[in-house]
Design brief:
Oligomer: heterodimer
Number of domains of chain B: 2
CATH topology of the largest domain in chain B: Rossmann fold
Mean pLDDT of chain B: 95
Strand content of chain A: 15-25%
CATH topology of the largest domain in chain A: Rossmann fold
Radius of gyration of chain A: 20 Å
Strand content of chain B: 5-15%
Helix content of chain B: 40-55%
Helix content of chain A: 25-40%
Largest sheet of chain B: 5 strands, parallel
CATH class of the largest domain in chain A: Alpha Beta
Number of helices of chain A: 11
CATH architecture of the largest domain in chain A: 3-Layer(aba) Sandwich
CATH class of the largest domain in chain B: Alpha Beta
Shape of chain A: globular
Largest sheet of chain A: 7 strands, mixed
Largest interface: A-B, 47 and 40 residues
Distance between the termini of chain B: 72 Å
CATH superfamily of the largest domain in chain A: Thiamin diphosphate (ThDP)-binding fold, Pyr/PP domains
Order of helices and strands of chain B: HHEHHHHHEHEEEEHEHHHHH
Low-confidence stretches of chain A: none
Number of domains of chain A: 2
CATH architecture of the largest domain in chain B: 3-Layer(aba) Sandwich
Mean pLDDT of chain A: 96
Shape of chain B: globular
CATH superfamily of the largest domain in chain B: Thiamin diphosphate (ThDP)-binding fold, Pyr/PP domains
Distance between the termini of chain A: 55 Å
Number of helices of chain B: 14
């Protein structure tokens, strides 16, 4: 593995993580729809079949429950499957296998049967995708005990979190914000590993904290930049691990500013954003100068491409929410 | 590609015994030898006793519920007896007798129904998956275990059990299709007992037989009289052999009958009449096998007593084991969920521990 910092897209970082994991551990198997010679519709598995052979990275019949169920059996029998659900909404046929077995087998068998499975799910909008290609489905998984749920916002996090997810003996739903697949960034493989279960402060700030994950992190950073022009200092926390959730980092950040806005693309009702707002309120109540606000998608199905911008949290919406954080009390 | 018609099952379910327990000659199917038949008979007698005992334990309030395989014991014991040590069994909730035949302690098997935990035995100890409660999902796991074994070049066949109702589930189809495409050494064994709780087979499928479903996936299908122990043994043995020697997955449908209600909580008089059930009494697999063994003069009175004694001992151990008070510790609720527990679960475990300490004050 090269140690020179280079520029990589998130797609390339994920591809490198799979390649390195497969090279290091012969029990890692990659399978799903079109992941073989094609390299996946997003090219995340590009070249893996050529390099590791048809056994290690293979196309399955087109059936998501089948893919997840096959992974359960292979995991029972000593393998570490990394499966790809082609798009967020196409993962739903696998839901029973994920919820009733992948999430529960370890518990069911009192720890005797581990499920070291990684379920990769390209998710969320922002790419002009048609119906069934833009869902933010993280809450379904986060609500299911037994799963870990992570979502990177940078190429470096994508690489390290995927390596960790594959090495984990617990099942990990790995949510890939597809609109960030092609974002390039300096990538230093020797940089400190993020660690599943840790959030990170992406931008320091003193007036309010924006809490975001996955596709909403760049939006939050942009909003912080815009606010800075107007003289308001916004801190940005990237949650990156939804389960387990890093209460410590998130709450320390909120306590330091006394105000918080949670930014997430998914519909807001009964969402991960709601959970974060509740946790922050419960734990930081006495440090808060205003109620925790949420900027989320509306409670509607993901819109058609020509209307999607109205659903996605925008810089303006984030700034409007920040404006609502009872600043007059400070004066 | 195989000749299409080769994949179709026989016109009628394969039989090696007639109704009165007389052997029927089948040139294509070797009749199991006496040793095999006696082993099956022993397992059948024990299995019947286990079914009866479990039912009694439900009535005594010791088990929450029990889905009995009464009448299906030939399928139960054969499914396990045809397997080798490196093979795997994937049972459903109705397959307790198959699990016990594979060597798992009945008390451990019944942990689920006793309410102590969701599964009570170590799946790796006898290569028996936890009994599946959701329908057909376990068939895909069976394909995964078989595929992993094949990738490592291991000699492992997986016996995957399901009922007639489960063949309507999507996972049944996905499992057959995946297994066929991956050439996974799996024997899919359907016990068609005519009912999915209250719904009869005619409401489940319009196919000529459940074994006919194999051809759509390029999987060889066979059907057998599920109450004919020698036939079930021979047909499953042949299927396991074909899967083991690289023939890919096999589909076997046993035609049998659920003699009792779905579980003790079910009232089968609401959906079937005794006129329908009664004819199956004379087709009881135990009666038919016993008649054969007596005819062959391999079942002496002494041997029969010895087998009955063994069944009684198993039942006594069940009574004793199930009646023993066990208190699953509440801390277990958090202990097994993750290999590496989350801080949130550690917090919640502490909340429960605190609650318990205050209860005991």
């Amino acid at each position: 593995m090269a140690t020179d910092p280079t520029k990589l897209t998130m797609a390339q970082a994920l591809n490198r993580a799979l390649r390195d994991a497969m090279a290091q551990d012969g029990t890692v198997y990659v399978f799903g729809e079109d992941v073989g010679p094609l390299g996946g519709v997003f090219r995340i598995t590009d070249g893996l079949t050529a390099e590791f052979g048809e056994d290690r990275c293979f196309d399955t019949p087109l059936a998501e429950s089948g893919i997840a169920g096959l992974a359960v059996g292979m995991a029972m029998n000593g393998m570490r499957p990394v499966i790809e659900m082609q798009f967020d909404a196409f993962a739903y046929p696998a839901f029973e296998q994920v919820v009733s077995h992948i999430a529960k087998l370890r518990n069911r068998t009192r720890g005797r049967v581990s499920m070291p499975i990684v379920i990769r799910v390209p998710y969320a909008g922002g790419i002009g995708g048609v119906e069934h290609h833009c869902d933010s489905s993280e809450a379904y998984y986060a609500h299911t005990p037994g799963l870990k749920v992570v979502t990177p916002a940078t190429p470096a996090d994508a690489y390290h979190l995927l390596r960790e997810a594959i090495a984990s003996d617990d099942p990990v739903v790995f949510m890939e914000p597809k609109k960030l697949y092609w974002a390039k960034e300096e990538f230093d493989p020797a940089a400190p590993r993020p660690g599943i279960g840790t959030a990170v402060v992406r931008r320091p700030g003193t007036d309010a904290t924006l809490i975001a994950y996955g596709p909403s992190v760049p939006t939050a950073l942009e909003a912080a930049e815009a606010a800075a022009q107007e003289g308001r200092s916004l801190q940005v926390v990237d949650v990156r691990s939804i389960v387990p959730f890093d209460d410590e980092t998130v709450c320390a950040a909120v306590r330091s500013t006394g105000r918080a806005v949670v930014v997430a693309e998914a519909s807001g009702f009964a969402s991960v954003a709601s959970e974060i707002a509740a946790r922050v309120t419960e734990r930081c109540f006495h440090s808060l100068a205003a109620p925790v606000r949420r900027v989320t998608g509306f409670d509607i199905p993901f819109p058609p491409p020509k209307l999607e911008r109205h659903q996605l949290p925008s810089v303006d919406r984030v700034l409007d929410a920040v404006d609502d954080l009872q600043w007059e009390d400070d004066q | 590609m195989a000749d299409d018609r080769d994949l179709l099952p026989s016109e009628q379910p394969v039989q090696l015994l007639d109704a009165s327990g007389r052997p029927v000659d089948d040139p294509d199917l070797p009749f199991p030898d006496n040793g095999r038949l006696l082993a099956a008979y022993t397992a059948l007698v024990v299995g019947r006793r286990v079914n009866d005992q479990a039912g009694a334990l439900v009535r005594q309030g010791r088990l929450a519920v029990y889905p009995s395989s009464h009448g299906q014991e030939a399928c139960q014991v054969a499914a396990s007896l045809v397997l080798g040590e490196n093979d795997w069994l994937f049972p459903t909730y109705r397959d307790t007798v198959a699990v016990i035949t594979r060597g798992v302690d009945p008390v451990e098997v019944l942990t689920l129904l006793k309410g102590d935990w969701h599964a009570g035995y170590d799946p790796y100890a006898h290569r028996v998956a936890p009994q599946a409660t959701p329908l057909a999902t376990q068939l895909l796991h069976a394909v995964g275990v078989a595929h992993a074994a094949r990738l490592r070049g291991e000699d492992t066949v997986v016996m995957a059990l399901c009922g007639d109702g489960a063949t309507s589930e999507g996972d049944f189809h996905e499992a057959l299709n995946f297994a066929a495409v991956l050439k996974a050494p799996v024997v899919f064994f359907i016990q068609n007992n005519e009912y999915a709780i209250s719904v009869p087979l005619a409401r489940q499928t319009a196919a000529p037989s459940l074994a006919h479903k194999g051809i759509g996936y390029g999987v060889n299908g066979e059907r057998v009289d599920g109450n004919d122990t020698p036939a079930v043994l021979a047909v499953l043995e042949r299927a396991v052999g074909a899967a083991r020697s690289g023939g890919g997955p096999q589909l076997v449908e046993a035609h049998t009958y659920r003699m009792q209600a779905h579980t003790n909580a079910d009232d089968d008089t609401r959906y079937r009449s005794s006129d329908e059930v009664d004819p199956w009494v004379s087709r009881d697999p135990l009666v038919r096998l016993e008649a054969l063994l007596k005819r062959k003069r391999v079942l002496t009175r002494a041997r029969r007593e010895e087998i009955t004694g063994r069944a009684e001992a198993v039942a006594a151990a069940m009574r004793e084991g199930i009646s023993r008070d066990t208190d699953p510790h509440p801390s277990e609720l958090f202990a097994h969920l993750y290999a590496e527990p989350t801080p949130q679960l550690r917090e919640q475990a502490a909340v429960l521990a605190d609650e318990l300490s205050r209860e005991s004050d």
